[in-house]
Design goal:
Elements: E1 2-3, E2 14-18, H1 23-39, E3 44-50, H2 54-57, E4 65-69, H3 74-85, E5 90-93, H4 98-106, E6 111-117, H5 121-130, E7 133-137, H6 141-146, H7 155-166, H8 181-190, E8 196-199, H9 211-224, E9 228-232, H10 237-245, E10 252-256, H11 260-268, E11 272-276, H12 279-286, E12 291-295, H13 300-306, E13 314-318, H14 327-349
Parallel strand pairs: 2-3, 2-5, 3-4, 5-6, 6-7, 8-9, 8-11, 9-10, 11-12, 12-13
Antiparallel strand pairs: 1-7
Helix pairs in contact: 1-7, 1-12, 4-5, 8-11, 9-14
């Protein structure tokens, strides 16, 4: 990832950090947020995020102020960010998206930085207009497949490059996700500790896996683990109800539509988290939990490097080819969850 020249020793009084996309991406930005705090400990740091992702930073001590963008009101969002820019020394778009780059530009701060993917030409054009400096990322599916010898930087490192671009030198690579005491208490009272958690998400139910395969997987996990927890949200509520009605395993607990930090607290007291390529991967990693993550076959080379479980024991698997029996993958997931559970348990006892 190439970085434009930047001088060290600069002082910022007011730092605005912008991230408008998903929960997992904001979790992966927490090392950069902490690094901005360490590099400029006396600065006022404002995080501009969405109401959906707000719980990720609710208890974060590296941020002084949270500004939530209004839902589906772009002009109000622009006006709110523009007002912040009146006192900002630097505005940082933490995601390689046109929204974040545009909002960083709207601040009109003296220094406006971000990063863009090489082949996202619209974002690159916008960066030329809106930003004073930017990083260029080589993370691209086609590049990753054509040049397998060239490693893809993890998103954590891509976002950390922005701290260096700003002149920061006190870097940390640790993910941060702080839970509320009430969330921890709720999980302790309502979910078995030490369980294997399967986090349902729409990506489980593609044509290469599907509801029947998920049902088989839950049953297989329940045969070898004392407790299995299945979590789900609004998008998978109906299919979770269908799966539940077809399973008779007494050791499977179903927890649906939990607030984000309450759900995270359930993961925090688990032994292993099983998920597809979603935010659950990164929430679990932030809580230091082993992860079994199943990626789509397409672009596996890119995704397994850019969004792999960060610094936790893990197994990364791919879905079977379209039309193939999912049985071997189910066996691999069960075996990996058992190995990670045993490994994590042994480490906890040592």
């Amino acid at each position: 990832m190439s970085v434009s020249p930047s001088s060290n020793g600069v002082t910022y009084r007011n730092i605005v950090l912008i991230r408008t996309d998903r929960v997992g991406d904001l979790v992966l930005s927490t090392p950069a947020i902490a690094s901005f705090r360490r590099s400029w400990p006396y600065a006022h740091i404002t995080a501009v995020i969405t109401g959906y992702t707000e719980p990720v930073l609710r208890h974060n001590r590296d941020v002084d102020e949270l500004v939530l963008l209004p839902h589906r009101s772009p002009f109000e969002a622009i006006a709110k960010v523009a007002r912040l820019g009146k006192s900002a020394d630097i505005a940082v778009g933490l995601a390689p998206r046109t929204d974040d780059i545009f909002l960083a530009g709207v601040t009109n701060a003296r220094k406006r930085i971000g990063y863009v993917y090489r082949r996202r030409y619209l974002s690159r054009a916008l960066a030329h207009l809106a930003l004073s400096d930017w990083c260029l990322s080589e993370a691209d599916p086609e590049i990753a497949d054509r040049f397998p010898e060239q490693p893809v930087l993890h998103e954590v490192h891509q976002v950390l490059a922005l701290v260096k671009l700003a002149g920061g030198e006190a870097l940390t690579e640790a993910l941060t996700l702080r839970l509320g005491d009430d969330d921890v208490t709720w999980a302790a009272l309502n979910a078995p500790s030490g369980a294997v958690v399967l986090a349902l998400a729409p990506r489980w139910f593609t044509r290469s896996f599907g509801a029947d395969a998920v049902k088989r997987l839950i049953s297989a996990l329940a045969l070898v683990h004392t407790d299995v927890i299945v979590t789900y949200g609004n998008e998978t509520e109906a299919i979770a109800a269908s799966l539940r009605s077809g399973l008779n395993s007494a050791n499977v607990t179903w927890l649906g539509n939990l607030p984000l930090l309450r759900w995270a607290a359930v993961l925090a007291q688990s032994a292993v988290v099983v998920t597809v390529d979603t935010g659950a991967t990164h929430v679990a990693a932030a809580l230091d939990k082993p992860v079994v993550v199943i990626f789509e076959r397409a672009y596996f080379r890119l995704c397994s490097q850019e969004w792999s479980p960060w610094r936790v024991p893990s197994a990364m698997l791919t879905k079977p080819p379209l039309g193939a029996d999912p049985g071997p993958l189910i066996e691999d997931v069960v075996a990996a969850s058992s190995a990670l559970r045993d490994r994590h348990g042994s480490a906890a006892l040592s």
